[in-house]
């Protein structure tokens, strides 16, 4: 299983597009991030631009 995260300028617009185009199940839905589950267990995340600093900070 793998996860691909796309940074998007307008999360609402991107979500509308991905919901209409693919119809995959939403597994995470928070104000700055939406994640979809594909058929083979792969996941696609949409992250609002400007929220990437949390991804690069060390854990622990």
Based on the coordinates given, report the CATH architecture. Answer: 2-Layer Sandwich
CATH class: Alpha Beta
Largest sheet: 4 strands, mixed
* Average pLDDT over all residues: 86
Q: Which spans have pLDDT < 50 for at least 5 consecutive residues? A: none
Principal-axis shape equals globular
Counting helices, strands and paired strands, the structural category is alpha+beta
Distance between the termini: 24 Å
Residues in helices, as a percent range: 25-40%
* CATH-defined topology: Signal recognition particle alu RNA binding heterodimer, srp9/1
Give the number of domains. Answer: 1
- Beta-strand segment tally: 4
Percent range for β-strand residues: 35-45%
Structure in words:
The protein is of the alpha+beta class. It has two helices and four strands, in the order E-H-E-E-E-H. Strands 1-4-3-2 form a four-stranded mixed β-sheet, covered by helices on one side. The longest helix is centred in the N-terminal third of the chain and has 11 residues, at 11-21. It is globular, with a radius of gyration of 12 Å. The N and C termini lie far apart (24 Å). The model has no long low-confidence stretch (mean pLDDT 86).
Describe this protein with a few key phrases:
about 60 residues, alpha+beta, Signal recognition particle alu RNA binding heterodimer, srp9/1, four-stranded mixed sheet, about 25% helix, globular
Write the layout of secondary structure elements.
Elements: E1 3-8, H1 11-21, E2 25-30, E3 33-37, E4 43-48, H2 53-56
Parallel strand pairs: 1-4
Antiparallel strand pairs: 2-3, 3-4
Summary?
With 60 residues, this protein is α+β, with helices and mostly antiparallel strands. Helices cover 25% and strands 38% of the residues.
């Amino acid at each position: 299983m793998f996860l691909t995260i796309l940074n998007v300028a307008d999360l609402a617009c991107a979500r509308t597009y991905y919901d209409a185009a693919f119809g995959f199940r939403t597994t995470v839905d928070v104000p700055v991030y939406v994640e979809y589950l594909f058929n083979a267990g792969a996941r696609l995340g949409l992250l609002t631009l400007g929220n990437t600093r949390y991804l690069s900070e060390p854990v622990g």
